[in-house]
Fold this protein.
Amino acid sequence: MALLELTHVHKRFGGLHAVNDVSFAVQPGQIKAVIGPNGAGKTTLFNCIAGTFPPSEGSVHFNGQPIEGLEPHRIASRGLSRTFQNIKLYPGLTALENVMIGRHCRSRAGFWAGMLRLPSTFREEREIRERSLEYLELLGIADLADSEATSLAFGQQRAVEFARALAAEPTLLLLDEPAAGLNIYETAEVARLITTIRDRGITVLLVEHDMSLVMDISDEIVVLSFGQKIAEDTPHNIQQNTEVIRIYLGEDDAAD
Amino acid sequence: MARYLPLALLAIVVIVVQQIAQWSDATYYLTQLTMTAYYSLVIVGLCLLMGYAGQISLGHAGFFAIGGYLSAMLTTHDLMPYQGNALFKALGSLGLLVHQQDLFGASVLHVTPWAACIAAVLTAALIAFCLGIPVLKLKGHYLAMATLGFGIIIFRVALATPLFGEADGISEVPGFTLLPGLTVSGDFAARTSNYYIAWGMVLLTMLLLSQLIHSRIGRALRAIHGSEEAARAMGVDTARYKLQTFVLSAVLAAVAGVFLTHFNGGLGPSEAGIMKSVRYVAIVAIGGMANLWGALIMGVVLNFLSLRGFFGTYDDAVFGAILIVIMLFAPHGLLHRGILRELKNLFRKNGHGPA
Ligand SMILES: Nc1ncnc2c1ncn2[C@@H]1O[C@H](COP(=O)(O)OP(=O)(O)OP(=O)(O)O)[C@@H](O)[C@H]1O
Ligand SMILES: [Mg+2]
């Protein structure tokens, strides 16, 4: 059974048809990429999956259950985690605290437990902190744990966001342009990281403009153009696909 | 452990101040310090809502007034005419009503202060809950205006309802016996014990709230403040936490209203006024927004000065001015960690040194 399945998903903003009849599935253990020119509707598609807004039409199944129209926090606690194209960290919180928020859906202390600081809360809080530190270590930024997250360098902020998403222990991770704004070393690091977490059993769906990254690590690629899916294939075949070359790579060349 | 140090310090300061007042024959200060303590409950509750969860309320005097007015009305309104009514019979048999003698020796029937207090606080919580569900969907200015509207309604209701004494408010509110021998009242003899009741409540509230802000929920509230979208994406039920925080802060305001009313023996419509709500917001802002202790300290200092008449007839103007100045020059408030650096920068910019 597919882990994530989109069937005839549409999203309209007024007259703009940002996502137009997109269907595809993500199998467990895959790294799948969504590519397409600027404005193709990639981020909008992610937002429909993660529940930021519901699709105008169509359905989204996660683990066999329909999730379209559910609130984002419900989708998150079912095991779907994400990062944002334009980094969204919490200002005023340290890097570690940002990652600790990632463990929110894996912990439960409520208002009363928090106010009374019950022994069980105390234990849970320690567990949250320890696990979050592990994810900072995985990302190689444990030394920045106590720095204010939004004052870090751009690449470090991306790493904090990555750690935050992983701390939720998702089964499916949505990454919206994880390498945007990173230099080639950092990009290589991101590629290595994505394959590492896939090997740990996390399925990855990513949007990325860096073609070498996408071609290197993806098992399958979906190509969007003006909201429509124009191809879905292996990296090798996508590179041979004449329509993709014309629509996607052609426009890319024109932009250069 | 460092978290409990300020609490211990506060407890020591509370005791030392009382001792000094006693030995220097200045116990009349304790009355204003007791009132200040109750206002501080409103302020730290609002600080949690505004500073931590990032949701403004310009209607918190309304919740204070709901608590104060309901408790005052229930403990002073004569229920004798309804004595035969089945509902009141049932309340009576539950021990929720008391027979008393009024000034002229006539027998009157009132709700007991404990029952009145609980009814008042629960009502405030219920109103906050029902109001919070729609208005907390709003953000920024829109939320400010909606809560302002709520505050105006409560103020006008207090002012226009005969049951609430219209412009005169309610007076001759009886003392509220918490435990045998421990009564919230303006009785001269009970001045010291009332000071300790009030500050004990502040200490308890600070203990609970400072534990809360360092908990999973407190972190989630700060995340909501920082980026609601990212908080939702990480599994934080933002609507629910905002509502719970709103109700919690309304309950603190209502409890403060109940206690201060029994302590003062009454209250008037000015307690429900918009200027009171603005004052609470100004104090949270000057205290550093996301800073419980800053809000408490500024609340104590400014309310005490205000109650001592230090600002004279410009009382409300002072709080308005504070808001303007804080928003212009120190939007992060006065009491926060970066303030020293900011001061240095301020002088560097205006001084002759290199920019
Ligand atoms: N919330 C919104 N309201 C209105 N229009 C939107 C909204 N979000 C996206 N759009 C529009 O939908 C279209 C698709 O945008 P989207 O951000 O999904 O593209 P994208 O493929 O992620 O592009 P990029 O590569 O630049 O990130 C654009 O025309 C955009 O302006
Ligand atoms: Mg995008």
About this structure: Confidence is low (pLDDT under 50) at residues 351-355 of chain B. Chain B has one domain: 5-310.
